[in-house]
Design brief:
The chain has about 280 residues and is an alpha/beta fold. About 40% of the residues lie in helices and about 20% in strands.
């Protein structure tokens, strides 16, 4: 068959050349994208971690490669860098923004509770990398203090007609407290909560002592806020890998690394080191 048809008009030849150029451009674009993805997923991958500034979980450390120090950076140093050979870099953001960055592919991993909403755009590690109880805090002298100290669950909070406060982006609270019909005040940032509670604008807050106790102390509100013995079951914090991240293709290796991290006792040692939680 002839490769060239002498009966083709100049217009048809021009269209054919334009189509071939389009195909070549499209193929080159795909190749460029594949190379970029390969670089991110291979030796050049630097894992992007998003987190709020919340000591002792994480705080700024300009002298470190990641830019962070604390419990979460130690976890990432061990699981990602020591066991998987992957460097990582941290960025401090408001909590709601940190989750959005993971959802949109601008971050690779966060550490938090794998709520139903977060599972839609992320994949959790098979095992938790950190566990902690959530305690109920209230302002001192609350007229129902004795009943608050004996709360056993979300149903009690609703029965007592208590109004909690929490930070925007707290999915655990919306799924475990609001879902039971309790009205909650939402504030822009976690740091506002102790003042909000001390001013008696809410009855209770539910939070982890690792982050809330230091905030209360730094604000000088120990005399105005009580951490009650009422608490919820241990909360499991996992590595959440964004579905848009190159790290998502390494979940099997990541889960093996986390399993070793848990099995050899490193998880408990880190909790004891940063939070004083006994193994």
């Amino acid at each position: 068959m002839a490769a060239f048809d002498s009966n083709q008009t100049p217009a048809r030849l021009s269209m054919r050349r334009w189509a071939l150029k389009g195909i070549r451009y499209w193929a080159l674009s795909l190749l460029t994208l594949a190379i970029a993805i390969s670089a991110r997923a291979g030796d050049d991958l630097v894992v992007r971690f998003a987190m709020t500034d919340a000591p002792p979980l994480s705080s700024a450390a300009p002298d470190t490669a990641s830019g962070m120090k604390g419990l979460y950076p130690d976890i990432l140093d061990d699981v990602l860098t020591r066991r998987m050979g992957l460097p990582w870099k941290g960025t401090f953001l408001p909590w709601k923004r940190a989750q959005l960055e993971l959802k949109t592919g601008n971050a690779d991993v966060i550490i938090t509770v794998p709520s139903e909403e977060r599972r839609a755009y992320s994949m959790p590690s098979a095992l938790p990398v950190f566990q902690e109880f959530l305690h109920i805090y209230t302002y001192k002298g609350h007229p129902r203090i004795n009943e608050i100290r004996n709360i056993r669950g979300a149903a009690d909070i609703r029965r007592l007609s208590l109004v909690p406060a929490t930070n925007i982006g707290n999915n655990w609270h919306s799924e475990n407290i609001d879902a039971h019909g309790t009205k909650t005040w939402y504030v822009p940032a976690d740091e506002i909560l102790p003042r909000f509670l001390a001013a008696k604008r809410a009855d209770i807050i539910i939070d982890t002592p690792s982050t809330m106790d230091p905030k209360i102390k730094n604000l000088g509100l120990e005399g105005q806020i009580e951490k009650t013995p009422a608490r919820f079951d241990p909360i499991n914090f996992h590595l959440l890998v964004g579905k848009e991240s190159p790290l998502a293709s390494m979940m099997h290796a990541l889960n093996e690394s986390v399993e070793q991290f848990v099995r050899d006792g490193t998880r408990e040692r880190f909790a004891a080191k940063h939070l004083g939680i006994s193994p």
